[in-house]
Automatic annotation (TrEMBL):
Record bears the keyword Isomerase: no
Gene Ontology MF terms: acid phosphatase activity; inositol hexakisphosphate 3-phosphatase activity
Protein's name according to its UniProt entry: Phytase A
Annotated organism of origin: Microbotryum saponariae
Reactions it catalyzes: 1D-myo-inositol 1,2,5,6-tetrakisphosphate + H2O = 1D-myo-inositol 1,2,6-trisphosphate + phosphate; 1D-myo-inositol 1,2,4,5,6-pentakisphosphate + H2O = 1D-myo-inositol 1,2,5,6-tetrakisphosphate + phosphate; 1D-myo-inositol 1,2-bisphosphate + H2O = 1D-myo-inositol 2-phosphate + phosphate; 1D-myo-inositol hexakisphosphate + H2O = 1D-myo-inositol 1,2,4,5,6-pentakisphosphate + phosphate
Cysteine pairs bridged by disulfides in the record: C60-C376, C247-C261, C411-C423
Listed CDD domains: HP_HAP_like
Main location: secreted
Lineage summary: Eukaryota, Fungi, Dikarya, Basidiomycota, Pucciniomycotina
Length: 450
């Protein structure tokens, strides 16, 4: 575990699009007080709560907690690392830079790694995540009785195992009893394993495979022109995005804002964000990648089993707290089954400022989804008279990065309350089972054979 210490008509259309981008994307910009790379780097953004967590009703008691957690910040993976270094080869170690913001490149040496390993900042993210969850659901003697020892799983990659370990350390820090939490199950990532925490669909394809290229053609030429206003380095759109990735990864590595971030204007971070949105929407999410939901069917089957008390794969069936550490593409697949963030196909030239699909708010480093199973008295729905005349009802609430999700589309209007954020457990289980049956059927198209 790491010690705590990403023809003319067409030309005219693009020109018009470029002129209104700043106005349309204005709502996506974040406060200047928050480093933009942290919140506008797509999946390479750092976790921040989307909303302030609202505690469940005082008329309800927690029955189960189901956490799906993504790993923390990491090194670049092999292919992105190679691409970044190819970009750097064009611009580093020059004797003169006409633009002052590029002067640091004269002495820059790439040392960010290329294995996708968890870095200290990512380890601290998972420690904080475990501590937050522990304090929220398991603090105090009664909380300890409810939580017991969490059932903790991870996929077998080093980064996920280390993330799980740091999460458990953070969770333990919030508890009265300091009994070490071991990862209960580590699931192999070999091709023949049944890994419900990993995403795997060989036949997964995008309905718009060139989405990012089309978007980059809209906005990156201006950046290339600016950076090469005095001298040419042979930069292209890929290089522009690599500079953005370097900004994020270098900043996380040094725990400060990287000089690479100074290569961009503040408004350009909204464009970078949208590039990441297109990547995830058309690469790993429904409906942009039609088979993507199938990758979450295994996890959802387990969630349904836990909610309905068929938990034969757990040593002790009294477990009430489940924590799974898996990949962000798995989380996107689960979102697809739940019906979350399913915007109409995203435009490749003009972002919609009202879109719900924003990858930095969905699957950032250390992102999380929590399914809360609640036992509520009649007073929850019916007030005083409900308390007297109505029995208890089980409800489910789903939190994505602390935002309570609207379950109306999944459960139906008659089965939800509190603006759609509470669904009766029976309706939730029934609706989710039907949705998962569709995803399971879609899995047949992934190409694994019989």
């Amino acid at each position: 575990m790491i010690a705590l210490t990403s023809d003319r008509k067409r030309t005219v259309a693009r020109t018009w699009t470029a002129t209104i981008l700043m106005m349309v994307l204005a709502s996506d910009l974040v406060s200047a007080a928050d480093p933009l790379y942290k919140s506008n780097s797509g999946q390479n953004s750092a976790y921040t709560p989307v909303a302030e967590y609202k505690k469940y009703s005082e008329h309800c008691a927690m029955k189960q907690v189901h956490l799906l957690q993504t790993p923390g910040a990491r090194q670049p993976a092999p292919n992105p690392s190679a691409s970044m270094q190819a970009t750097l080869a064009k611009v580093i170690n020059k004797t003169h830079y006409a633009r002052s913001e590029m002067a640091f490149l004269a002495n820059y040496t790439y040392n960010l790694g290329d294995e996708g390993s968890l870095i200290p900042f990512g380890a601290s993210q998972l420690y904080d995540a475990g501590s937050t969850i522990g304090k929220r659901y398991c603090s105090g003697p009664l909380g300890k009785v409810f939580c017991g020892t969490p059932f903790l799983r991870s996929s077998s990659s080093t980064r996920l195992r280390e993330s799980a370990g740091n999460w458990s350390e953070g969770f333990l820090s919030s508890q009265y009893t300091k009994t070490p939490i071991q990862t209960s199950v580590i699931i192999s990532e070999t091709s023949d394993s049944r890994n419900t925490l990993s995403n795997n669909c060989p036949n997964l394809v995008s309905i718009v495979p060139d989405a990012q290229d089309e978007w980059r053609a809209v906005w990156t030429p201006a950046v290339v022109q600016r950076l090469q206003s005095e001298e040419s380095y042979g930069l292209n759109s890929t290089d522009v995005l690599n500079f953005a990735y370097l900004c994020a990864f270098d900043s996380y590595a040094i725990n400060a804002t990287s000089p690479f971030c100074g290569l961009f204007k503040s408004y350009e971070w909204a464009y970078i964000e949208y590039d990441g949105d297109l990547d995830k929407y058309y690469g790993n999410a429904y409906p942009g990648a039609p088979l993507s939901r199938s990758q979450g069917a295994g996890y959802v089957n387990e969630l349904l089993a836990r909610l309905t008390s068929d938990r034969s794969y757990v040593d002790k069936d009294t477990t009430q707290f489940y924590a799974d550490v898996g990949y962000n593409n798995l989380m996107l697949a689960v979102f697809g089954i739940l019906g979350f963030f399913q915007d109409d196909p995203l435009s490749t030239t003009l972002p919609c400022p009202m879109r719900s699909f924003v990858s930095s708010k969905m699957v950032p480093f250390a992102g999380r989804m929590v399914v809360e199973s609640l036992d509520c008295s009649g007073a929850f729905e019916g007030g005083y008279w409900g308390k007297i005349f109505k029995g208890r009802t089980d409800f489910v609430r789903v939190m994505v990065n602390d935002q309570a999700m609207d379950l109306t589309s999944l459960c139906g209007q008659s089965k939800v309350t509190e603006r759609g954020t509470y669904c009766t457990r029976s309706a939730f289980v029934e609706a989710l089972a039907k949705a998962n049956a569709v995803a399971t059927k879609e899995f047949e198209g992934c190409g694994f054979g019989k």
